[in-house]
Structure formats: C-alpha cells, structure tokens
Amino acid sequence: MAQLRPSFSILTGxxxxxxxxxxxxxxxxxxxxxVGVNAxxxxxxxxxxxxxxxxxxxxxxxxxxxxxxxxxxVVTPFVGRLMDVRGPRIVVExxxxxxxxxxxxxxxxxxxxxxxxTLGALVGGGVNCLAYAAQSIYLTNWFVRRRGLALxxxxxxxxxxSITILxxxxxxxxxxxxxxxxxxxxxxxAVLLGPLNLLLKRRPEDIGLRPDGLMxxxxxxxxxxxxxxxxxxxxxxxxxxxxxxxxxxWLAVGYFCGLFSWYAVQVHQTKYLIEIGFDPGEAAWALGxxxxxxxxxxxxxGHLSDRIGREWVWMIGNLGFVICDLSLIALRSAPTQVxxxxxxxxxxxxxxxxxxxxxxxxxxxxxxxxxxxxxxTVMVAAILGGAAGPWLTGVIYYATGTYSIAxxxxxxxxxxxxxxxxxxxxxxxxxxxxxxxxLAAG
Length: 442
What we know:
It contains 21 helices and 2 strands. The chain has 442 residues and is mainly alpha-helical.
C-alpha cells in the first residue's frame, strides 16, 4: 500500500501544500470550535449583565440557554442530512451566519422572546451546524488511521478558546456593555469563520486523495483492511436500517448518559463549590482550569484511541467523570485543594476526552454515504442528555437541599454509558489502526 509521506506536496485545486490537506481542515475546525463553541458558552458571561438591566426572572432569562438545547435537538438530524446531500461548506456557513446574526441582533433585545430568538434559537441552534456534530461528520471522511487524533486536535480548540475569547469578552462587558460585547463577538465570528470555512471539502476523493493522505492514482488502497465484521460493513446503512439495530440504540443510551453527567457537573459545579465554602473567584478559576487541562488530555487520549480502540477511551472518559463526581461529593466534608485538583484533572484531562471518540464510534459502526443522517440522529440523544442532566440535578437539589444524590445519579449514568458503548462494540465492526495490523497478520 503506497502512502504519501507528510513532507510530499499535494495538489489541491490551485493550492499546493507540503502536507496532507486533511490537516488543514483540522486547523480550520480548531479555529471554528474555539470561536463558535465559546460564543455559545459566552451566555454565562452575558447572563448577569442581562439580569441587571432588565430584572427579569432568573428562570425565564436562563431559559433562553435551555431553549437553545431544544432547538439543537430539532436541528441536529437535519444538519446530518444536509451534510450528506450538500457537504460541510454550506452547513458550516449556515451556522456561522445564524450565530453571527443572533449575536448582533441580541444587541437590540428588549423583551424575553427576543432573547430566546437571538441568543437561544439562532446562537444555540446555529452552533450545531459548525460544532461537534458537523465536524465529526465530515472529518471522519478524511481520516481512518488517525481519526481519533484528528478529531481530538480539532476539538481541543474549545479549550484554547475558553482561555482566550472568554476572558476578552469578560473584560469587554463591564467597559463597553453586554450589547456591544455581543456585536463585537458576532463580527469576530463572521469575519474570521466565514472566509475560513470556504476551504472545506466533503471528502478527500474530491481532490484526488484517499483518507490519511493516500493517493488515488497510486497503488490501490484496501479500505476494507480494518474490517472485522464483513457482513455488517457490507450493508448500505441508511437511517431506517440503523434504527432497527440494537447497536444504534446502545449508542443512543450511551451518549445520553455520558452527556447527562457531563452537563450536570459543568452547569452546577461553580455554584456547588461556592456553596461548600470556596471563594467565587476560585470556583470560576476551577472551571477555566478544567478547559485548559482538557487540551493535552483530549489530544493524548484521542491518539490513544487510534491504538487501543474507541471503547477503551470512552471508558476512560466516563471514569474521569466518575472520579470527578466522587471528588465533588467528598469536597463537601473535606474542602481541600487536593480534592479540588483531583476533580479538575479527572474532569478535564480524562472526562473531556469523550469528544475525541464521539464521532469515530458511530462512524466505525455505520460508515457510509448516509452516515451524517445516522450520526445526527444519535446526537439528538446526546443533546437530550445534556439538557436533562442540569435540569434533573437542579430539581433534586431543590427537593433535597444537597447535590450528593444528583452527583451519585451522574456516577450511575457514567457506568451505564461505559456498558452500552461496549455493547455497541465498534471495534467488532472495524478495528482501529493499532489493532488492524494484528488483524491483517491473523
């Protein structure tokens, strides 16, 4: 099997690059995730200023962010379908346009419904066209052997954005006001991400390449070399066919439970730390540090998943959240720095690695021309889990006066998520690069 070394030049239209074009797309995705995802996260910074100006009910105001999750659940399957039909460029540009419009129009808000339309529907829904779901669908076409590494590098942009864009926005709101901050963020998003994502291409075959940089004109590539279950891989998987399989529903349950725990912790962590005695500044610092330590963890574990298998890294990520939840529970009776750092490292370095395999897992089970529709539908379960986690955690807290029960439920969800992904067993359909060699030798 002939393969271009990264130092060779590759002709891509009128652009000649000294490396595989797919890595340029990873760089574009890195910047897109850094700006796009953090533009949605910025709601938490805008929230106090909006409350201060309008004095609306907190639940009504915060509901705009939750409404964005609802819109995302409706939008995501259509994102996958449109990606299958039209490719990534138009889908991501729609997301850029929607988010930029939502942020800029938010500067005109005077009624709650307008907040729901702008920062809720346009920003919260638009982000799904350019964030995890969209990037996972088309980047998996470009990489097979290094799929985990490529997606983990792309998604690590979120962590870098959280320590650059969010502090900038946080300093802008007190000086220029939240309305001006929305406008400036919207302009940044449009001017930077709009032109950048014009470079996107659906698959390497469109420019005479194969995944991972293999040349179509060179020796033929045996794309089936990593296939374990040939009968399963031979099926032309459509969404209706996938829905009739147990593997699809194991994925759905696994993603629901994994994201349930993730967002239950992320949304309530700061309030909980303040409640048990930590300084508000220290609690906010802990949340930022989680995003920072996530960057090396995502990349390392994404690369590891290419060697040992996606199921193992999914298990490591969920166990990271188990350690995080148990540390949070223990912090109530022993609020020490050691436990705080254990929580931060477990959540960021280990837990956030879930994003590096979230795209590869279903891709290796349902790879094919309809993968976008299938993945988009699986992600509805993930979004619903992400919405249910914070809500149920809040309900349980108000009913019991403690977070311990809710965090214990999150631990149970993580264990269930581990079990269901092992039952879905993507490694029994296609082997990762580190195991494909053994498969060929056998």
